[in-house]
Amino acid sequence: MSAEGVAAATGTGTGAGAAVRLRGAATRRGRAARVVVWALLAGLPLAFLVVFFGLPVGVILGRGFVTDGALDLSGFAEVFGRSRTWRVVGLTLAQASVGTAIAVVLGVPGAYLLYRTAFRGRALLRGLVVVPFVLPTVVVGVAFRSVLAPSGPLGFLGWDESFAGIVAALVFFNYAVVVRTVGAFWADLDPRAEQAARALGAPPWRAFASVTLPALTPAIASAAAVVFLFCATAFGVVLVLGGLRYGTVETEIWVLTTQMLDLRSAAVLSVVQLAVIATVLALAGRARSRRERALGRTGPRREAPRLALRGPLARRADPLAAAVTAVVVVGLLGLPLGTVLVRSLHEPGGGWGLANYANLGTTGGRNALSVTVWDAAATSVRTAVDATVLAVLVGGLVALVVSRRPRGRGARRAVRAFDAAFMLPLGVSAVTVGFGFLVALDGGLGPDLRSSPLLIPVAQAVVATPLVVRTVLPVLRAIDSRLHDAAAVLGAGPWRVLAFVDWPVAARSLGLAVGLAFAVSLGEFGATSFLARPDRPTLPVVIFRLIGRPGAENLGMAFAACVLLGLLTASVMAVAERLRSGAGYGEI
């Protein structure tokens, strides 16, 4: 048989070779297309992070380390040679440590009650518990100030303008973080190990301490790290409740920048804060990885047993968890918010009515404001809408990229680094971000953007993006990677895979992501306090100005404005809860 006949019989002729080459070329083109698509998806949010976070923070770092183009560390010696600096750093660490410890101690019983037992109204209680987390810091500061004032319900404690009052407000904020993080993990924990310990004769407390508590350690550590970050970078609460007496690094940066015009000292403190935050973020990331690995080894999810306070089915832990949670919800969460509502109805001239709400259409006593509260509310809503669109777009792209599970070790490390980079704004002070915007975007490195109306939405989007990522990411990670492989084998291109596999699943968490981003942007105060123009203040800025002005009329307007802002925030979160279609709060 001739060579041509052998080639034809065996299929190795020029036609078959051409087909093989065509398939190889098609595979290479598909691989190149996927690389281009993922490069675009990663490059757009990365450019946003570099310009609007990396550049401002980098300029702050430069102010702390560089003088006249040369490395100069004398600013550190000067700042840390002041006794006030050590006092501020000590107060920051003390408030964050004590606040974290109390939040964990109170949050674990709440996590058990809301995620390990079933009772009527549990879903509503879960929603109420998370409201304080998204409330504006200024509202919380005013609420606790009214509760702890000598004339307030808890004035007898003597906690007005005290360390204890600030810690109570920090716990108020972060209680939901512990409950959500530990509770979601606890709900997926296999109960059979603890049941086996009980069957072998261990009493309930010993079975919990020796079996369940060690299993919960990754979730508790992760929650504690995040709570410490939030406590250490709290701004509005500390500024309203503690002032200069109980100032933290966060408030000290604000004072040095806005009142003393000492940018170099503020930059040094920002550098120190960034170093501490980077360390805590690394610990939080490690704890989160341990939690994810532990969840991968859990057993099948079981229906939570009914809450039993009495009778033969009663468990000893149930009454204790119910009692602790009731005290926290009523005393710590409900009392401050209820006091603000009552004070808003107390008219300046005495008696009760809606005079304070009617005054929201004015500029306050002695023209304390440059615009009315309603104008500021409209500005806040417009700004929050713009910030939400940016945060959801950027955060959604980040979550999509991070949700991938590449096979190569280098690619996996790159994805982890990409995720960690976008978590930095979660811990970096909003005050530092606002300060950096003022310094970096003054036209020295490009156009002067400080007067742009988009500056505040961009700053708020930087702060809200990590929350969007942590909300959407767990939903995307739940997609079986084999679906992507199957779609690719069937000939679907990268865009079709995204449209028909990822998007339908990601849409489940979109309502919650939008709600969180909008609520956080609506109440953001740290960066906005630097960037808001006098003729276009946001509602939190107006509230802070009102409580700093003398007169019962201004104070009453501040309470009414707090109620307005709180209702807006709670309404947004209520709508987000209804739109979330079963998506959880993920990794807040």
UniProtKB/TrEMBL annotation:
Entry membrane topology = Multi-pass membrane protein
Q: Output a single Gene Ontology CC term carried by this record.
A: plasma membrane
Signal sequence coordinates: none
Any stretches that span the bilayer, and where are they? 35-61, 93-115, 127-148, 163-187, 208-241, 261-284, 320-342, 384-402, 422-441, 453-473, 510-532, 555-576
> What subcellular locations does the record give?
Cell inner membrane; Cell membrane
Checking CDD domains in the record gives: TM_PBP2
Q: Note the Gene3D superfamilies from the entry.
A: MetI-like
Boundaries of every ABC transmembrane type-1 domain copy? 89-282, 377-576
Q: Which InterPro entries match?
A: MetI-like, MetI-like_sf
**Which GO biological-process labels does this protein carry?**
transmembrane transport
Q: Which UniProt keywords apply?
A: Cell inner membrane, Cell membrane, Membrane, Transmembrane, Transmembrane helix, Transport
The domain of life for this entry's organism is Bacteria
One Pfam family from the record: BPD_transp_1
**Family assignment?**
Belongs to the binding-protein-dependent transport system permease family.
Q: What is this protein called?
A: ABC transporter permease
